[in-house]
Amino acid sequence: MSGVVVGVCPPFVAIPLFTGVSDKDGLTKFLLEAGNYSFRALFNNVEVGNIPVLSLSENATEILACQLVHIRISIKDVDETPIPFINVTFMYEYTMITNETISVKDSFETDNTGIVVLRNTLANTSYIIEARRYGHLFGTTTIGNLTASLWVNVTCPTHLLFIHVLDSNEQPLKNVQVTAYEWSSERPMLTQAANETGSIASTLTFGRYTIVVSNYSKEFKEAIVLNETILDLIEDQFLMIHCKIFGIALSVKVVDYFGQPISNAVVEVERKGEQGWMKIEPSPRTNSEGAVSLPNIGGDYLISIYATGNLDETRTISLTTSQQVVIKLDRYVLVGGYLIETSPLVTYISLILLVVAFCSFLVYKKYVKINAEKKTTPEKIKK
Question: What is the pTM of this model?
Answer without folding.
Answer: 0.78
